[in-house]
Design a protein that fits this description.
- InterPro entries: Ala_racemase_N, PLP-binding_barrel, PyrdxlP_homeostasis.
- Belongs to the pyridoxal phosphate-binding protein YggS/PROSC family.
- It holds the Pfam family Ala_racemase_N.
- Its cofactor is pyridoxal 5'-phosphate.
- The protein is built from 10 helices and 8 strands.
- It is an alpha/beta fold.
- Helix 8 links the parallel strand 6 and strand 7.
- The N terminus is likely disordered.
């Protein structure tokens, strides 16, 4: 019976999802870590609800989106027990629609300045939501095209979120490595160093500060270097589908 059920949900995305889970387990084992220490965020940007549903039916519950409007459109069409992570650039004017439109938003991974932190903090309070988990995004590659605070400024922002934003729960740091796969260890190392500084400043253990790093091309390496949260999209759902301009 189990095999038949498995076959029923085993479209391409479900099969690819299972393969990624196996790879995460292997990477964790090689690094001497437990697989339960790593969260997989299945990033479904530009993908139809039907594909998200396929991976949901294969047992997954944590999904990520990069665009506010796309998340607001998708969330109501999918089960309420999904934990949505917003991982894209968030503008102040989109904070209210995001928080009001996605009651099961579990985390914003891309807080990159005090203004957006303050806006999220006020909106969570005014909507009567429970405290929202956030990561501070750090630009570890120095590329101008990437959002995030400079590594030298991440401690101040983490401190601001932790001490001044009572409706936000500071949970860790996030970075997007460089597209050039060979340079990512350096970026991951920078984020791990930022974590040490932040934990010292906040007086918390390193286990209390997550590292969100690693995507489709480099998640195994990120796990090896201490990632607790990997964001995998195209390996599960296939290449992105952007509308032609």
């Amino acid at each position: 019976m189990e095999a038949a059920t498995s076959a029923a949900v085993d479209g391409a995305a479900a099969g690819a999802f299972r393969s990624v889970v196996r790879r995460i387990h292997q990477a964790a084992e090689s690094a001497g870590r437990g697989p339960h220490q790593i969260r997989l965020v299945a990033v479904s940007k530009t993908k139809p609800v039907s594909l998200v549903r396929q991976v949901y039916d294969a047992g997954h519950r944590c999904f990520g989106e990069n665009y506010v409007q796309e998340l607001i459109d998708k969330a109501p069409q999918l089960p309420e027990d999904i934990e949505w992570h917003f991982i894209g650039n968030l503008q102040s004017n989109k904070v209210k629609p995001l928080l009001a439109g996605v009651p099961n938003l579990a985390m914003v991974e891309s807080v990159d300045d005090e203004k957006i932190a303050n806006r999220l903090d006020r909106m969570v309070e005014s909507l009567g939501r429970k405290p929202l988990k956030v990561f501070v995004q750090v630009n570890t590659s120095g590329e101008e095209s990437k959002n995030g605070v400079e590594p030298s400024e991440c401690m101040e922002l983490a401190k601001h979120v932790s001490e001044r934003c009572l409706n936000l729960e500071f949970c860790g740091l996030m970075t997007i490595g460089m597209l050039d796969y060979s340079s990512t260890p350096e970026n991951f190392k920078t984020l791990a160093n930022c974590r040490s500084e932040v934990c010292k400043a906040l007086g918390i253990e390193e286990e209390q500060c997550e590292l969100s790093m690693g995507m489709s091309n480099d998640f195994e390496q990120a796990i090896e270097m201490g990632s607790t949260n990997v964001r995998v999209g195209s390996v599960i759902f296939g290449a992105r589908e952007y509308a032609k301009k």
